[in-house]
Structure formats: structure tokens, C-alpha cells
Write a structure and sequence with these properties.
This protein is mainly alpha-helical and 193 residues long. The protein has a domain of 97 residues. It contains five helices and four strands. The longest helix is centred in the middle third of the chain and has 30 residues.
């Protein structure tokens, strides 16, 4: 009877310690969420390779190859995370409702993080939407707006090369009851070489 009792205690301690051992090995609900996300991305990649067709729309050979490709991608994901499919299946089967909630929360967090990274990348490519003004051009380093081959560079002195701008507006008079007159200045020298 003593032997039976000690064997029963040893067996029960091994069964109760299995989930704790899995967490010691690094398998947590958060890691399960990452694995599920990677698996979904791998499956989507394989489905995209086969044109996102239903299995009923594929021939038997295509369907078999698609299944083998999906299994290979799933094995790569498990290898990437350093666990076996058996450990993963065992851990997910024994997860509590609290663990399932942790997986859902981690999945939402990973989705939000990926969305934020995608938006940041798009914003980086597009720019920040501000116009940056560079100041400090000088006669030593002029900026050419338009140039033709073989022509000497021309520098815009008063900011109105095309002549559409009337120049600066000068208000005359000190009386506020009458409207101000505007006088435009015409420059005799539009281009300087």
C-alpha cells in the first residue's frame, strides 16, 4: 500500500508540474499569441501563392502541394520560436480561460503595434507634411531655378524673374480715413550675370 501511495503522489506531481515546466521553457500565453500571428501570416502567404482559391477550386495535385506548403511554413514558425508542435498543442489545450484572455490581449497589442509601425513607415516615406524653408543663399553659392544647357547661370535678384509680381507694395499717406495707395516699383535690371 505504501508503494502505491508513493507512486500515485509521484504521478500526480508530474501531471501538475507539466504546465509549470512549459512556462519555464518559455511557452507563455504571450508567446502563443506571437506564434499564432506568425502562423496566420505564413498561411496567408501560402494561400496568396495559390491565388487565394478554395480547395474545391484546385486540382488534387495542387491541393496536396498547398497542404504540404502550409505544413512546412507552420514547422518553420515553430522552429523560429524554438518549440515543437507537440509542446505547442499540449500547452494550448491546457490553457485556462485567463490564459486565453491573455492571448487575446497580446494579439490585440501586437496588431496595434504593427498598425502603428506601418503608419510610421508610411509617414516617413511621405514626409511629415511640413515645408522646410532653407535660408542663407548667398552670391557665392546662388540657386538656379531654371537652366538650359550651354547658357550662363542667371540669378533672381528681386524675386520676380517672370514679371508677374508687381514688386513690393508701399503705403503712402498718414490719414487713416482714406484708403492707402499702393505704388509698385519696377526694376530696370531684372537679371544679373
Amino acid at each position: 500500500m505504501n508503494t502505491r501511495l508513493s507512486l500515485m503522489l509521484a504521478a500526480s506531481s508530474l501531471l501538475l508540474a507539466a504546465p509549470a515546466l512549459a512556462e519555464d521553457e518559455g511557452l507563455t500565453p504571450e508567446k502563443v499569441a506571437a506564434i499564432q500571428r506568425d502562423e496566420a501570416a505564413a498561411q496567408a502567404k501560402v494561400n496568396n501563392e495559390y491565388g487565394n482559391r478554395k480547395p474545391s477550386e484546385m486540382s488534387n495535385a495542387e491541393r496536396g502541394q498547398a497542404i504540404r506548403d502550409q505544413q512546412n511554413e507552420a514547422a518553420k514558425v515553430m522552429e523560429k520560436h524554438g518549440i515543437s508542435a507537440k509542446e505547442y498543442a499540449t500547452f494550448t489545450a491546457r490553457m485556462t480561460p485567463d490564459d486565453n484572455q491573455r492571448v487575446a490581449n497580446e494579439t490585440k497589442r501586437l496588431d496595434d503595434k504593427a498598425k502603428a509601425e506601418k503608419e510610421a513607415e508610411a509617414k516617413k516615406r511621405k514626409g511629415d507634411g511640413e515645408v522646410h524653408i532653407q535660408q542663407g543663399f548667398s552670391d557665392a553659392d546662388p540657386v538656379e531655378l531654371e537652366s538650359t544647357e550651354g547658357a550662363e547661370p542667371s540669378v533672381d535678384v528681386d524675386g520676380s524673374l517672370d514679371g508677374t509680381s508687381g514688386g513690393p507694395v508701399v503705403e503712402m499717406g498718414s490719414d487713416t480715413s482714406t484708403p492707402a495707395k499702393s505704388v509698385s516699383r519696377k526694376s530696370s535690371s531684372r537679371r544679373r550675370k
